[in-house]
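dumping this here so i dont lose it
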């Protein structure tokens, strides 16, 4: 039996969050409906070690799969095949087991009389809230096929954006991992062979060699090895605690923008995501206040989420226009508020936001290239220093011994 979390409304209209066990999502939904609850969503509870979040089995659908699934649904619906048949066909299209099961659950929800958005809301691990909101808007406006095509384009934009960021970080991450593995090999396997050799030499070892021997001896202490082995669990525990603290998360969210070069990349990614998400929501006919709050939840940075929610409140409570509210927030550049003001004046905000998205997308590409150019020589320099240190520490005593012969 799998473990699930659920969010429902009781007969009095109160929102209730709880946990349940069942063979599948839809079985849990049916059991909750039998006792009179209005089911909002059900999601699988991630397994974890005590105090540590281990996301081993709790997987979200990849953006590439979600984009393909959305486009196929749009084609099936536009061609008149129907959503239920389309979802059943998607089960056989070679998607991962996780996504295929989600498609089957949505089809089962449609069979039971739910709308597409209600059925998708039961699987937030595959269909995020932004996705469900847009599908609901398409159902109300009668343009579900157009919304699905736009959703597919939006997910493809998100996929392209994430791949650009991953490409910028992949090379440094690979080199860093290789350095760690090489250092571990040297400290625990190669250097110990030289310790007995150097100890047997009747010469004064150079300071650099003595430092290398001291580091090797220290790193091979049992308590140090135990500390290194336990450090991932300890760091995970610290992350688990800090991620539940709003002040810590907010500080870290702001700190990311202060990191040289990477901060510029992060800001460009956030601004491009803001523009593309708000554009598709407004294009679907969702009211501005709701669209801003949904966009805020789609951000992966708490500082940006709070900023957008504050902008939405200023529009609702103080009567500001979107351009005025954005201009008052120091995070957003002047160019963006000027473009939004133009969009408000001409009455075509989605088009202006799309132009802004393309601008910030180019900024992402430029910053990725700059990061690569700056990081490559820095990484090579660090590796050169490490290799040079090791070579000097190993060969200086040998040269001293040969000179004494």
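and the seq i came up w/
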């Amino acid at each position: 039996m799998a473990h699930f979390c659920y969010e429902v409304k009781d007969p009095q209209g109160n929102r209730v969050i709880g946990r349940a066990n069942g063979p599948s999502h839809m079985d849990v939904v049916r059991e909750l409906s039998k006792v009179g609850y209005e089911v909002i969503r059900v999601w699988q509870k991630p397994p974890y070690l005590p105090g540590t979040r281990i996301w081993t089995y709790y997987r979200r659908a990849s953006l590439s799969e979600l984009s393909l699934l959305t486009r196929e649904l749009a084609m099936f619906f536009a061609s008149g095949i129907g959503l239920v048949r389309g979802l059943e066909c998607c089960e056989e299209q070679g998607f991962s087991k996780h996504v295929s099961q989600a498609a089957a659950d949505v089809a089962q929800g449609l069979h039971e009389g739910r709308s597409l958005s209600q059925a998708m809301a039961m699987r937030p691990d595959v269909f995020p809230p932004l996705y469900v909101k847009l599908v609901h808007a398409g159902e109300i406006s009668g343009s579900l096929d157009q919304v699905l095509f736009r959703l597919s384009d939006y997910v493809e934009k998100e996929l392209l954006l994430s791949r650009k960021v991953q490409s910028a970080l992949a090379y440094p991450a690979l080199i860093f991992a290789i350095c760690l593995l090489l250092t571990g090999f040297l400290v625990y396997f190669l250097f110990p062979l030289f310790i007995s050799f150097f100890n047997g030499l009747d010469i004064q070892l150079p300071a650099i060699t003595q430092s290398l021997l001291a580091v090797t001896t220290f790193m091979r202490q049992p308590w140090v090895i135990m500390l290194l082995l336990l450090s991932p669990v300890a760091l995970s525990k610290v992350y688990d605690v800090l991620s539940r603290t709003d002040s810590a998360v907010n500080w870290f969210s702001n700190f990311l923008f202060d990191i040289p070069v990477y901060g510029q990349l992060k800001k460009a990614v956030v601004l491009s995501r803001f523009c593309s998400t708000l554009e598709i929501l407004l294009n679907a006919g969702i009211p501005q206040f709701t669209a801003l709050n949904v966009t805020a939840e789609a951000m992966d940075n708490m500082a940006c989420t709070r900023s957008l929610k504050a902008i939405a409140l200023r529009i609702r409570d103080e009567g500001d226009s979107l351009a005025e509210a954005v201009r008052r927030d120091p995070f957003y550049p002047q160019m963006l508020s000027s473009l939004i003001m133009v969009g408000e004046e001409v009455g075509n905000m989605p088009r202006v936001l799309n132009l802004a998205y393309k601008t910030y997308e180019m900024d992402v590409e430029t910053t990725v290239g700059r990061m690569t150019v700056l990081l490559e020589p820095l990484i090579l320099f660090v590796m050169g220093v490490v290799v040079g240190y090791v070579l000097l520490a190993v060969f200086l005593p040998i040269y001293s011994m040969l000179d004494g012969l």
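Confidence is low (pLDDT under 50) at residues 48-58.
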